[in-house]
Fold this protein.
Amino acid sequence: MVQKDQAELCPATRPRRFYDYTLNEKLLYSSFLLLVGVGYLMALAYLYTSFDGIDGKLGLSVEDIAENYYGNRSGTRLESALRGSMAANIDLQQRHHIIAWLKSGAPRNGYESTIKPILAERCVACHAPASGLPIPDLSSYEGVKRVADVDTGVSLHSLMKVSHIHLFGIALVAFGIGLVFRFALLPAWFQYTLTLLPFIAIFSDIFAWFLTRWDPVYAYTVVAAGALLGLSWVLQITISLYQIWFLRCRVVPEEQP
Ligand code: HEC
């Protein structure tokens, strides 16, 4: 008997659904979801334009993402220019000198004795502030150094900055969408999974940024987690919007005594 007294009587209510809400609340939820949806599309467009072509090829690719976080460690910008677009401006012997200097870590003393004269002869006509061109300044050691360092991708410091902003920001958006989505009428397992998925995806995505800095193969994880986030939000938003406006409840006729 003691046990029965202690147990709280649970109210026999069913969970609330979208059809339980007033028109005002439905309008509020719908506008929030729509605006967040537009925000998400805008984020995708921004992502595309800021990552597109990092690797020199058109279109956003896994390689672009890998190169952003990991860098292009096979060489320096100066070396690839000397072997590629700027090759015509220099003879083989001089190129050999510069590349050997790059491989030795681009020290200042070597610059003064051998590199500076070559650059002055071959490159500085264009590559100096006086030319007014938006191209690397090769007339000073500092300027040369900027294209002579191995590209190791985004710095840990700026990665931490971007990460915490994303974690706070996206977590709040995911929370807002989840708050609305909890009223959807769905099989419980499906609803629980879909509720958790955005949070897992955000965490994996940002964690994978750091992993990609370490090994470019994790660029695939970044893409997969991003796709998972997109998919779960699309489902949460469309299911919610549909049920807000179209799901009705059937009134069970009261039984006659
Ligand atoms: C006739 C003018 C001219 C000369 C001479 C010249 N460049 Fe350039 N350079 C450019 C222009 C224009 C660009 C930007 C367009 C491009 O990347 O092709 C550029 C781009 C570069 C870049 C940047 C590539 C990147 O990663 O974006 C490097 C590095 C470079 N040049 C190195 C050199 C070196 C080293 C020499 C001398 C051997 C040299 N350039 C001679 C005009 C010149």
Observations:
- The chain has ten helices and no strands.
- Residues 165 and 251 are 47 Å apart (CA to CA).
- The mean pLDDT is 88.
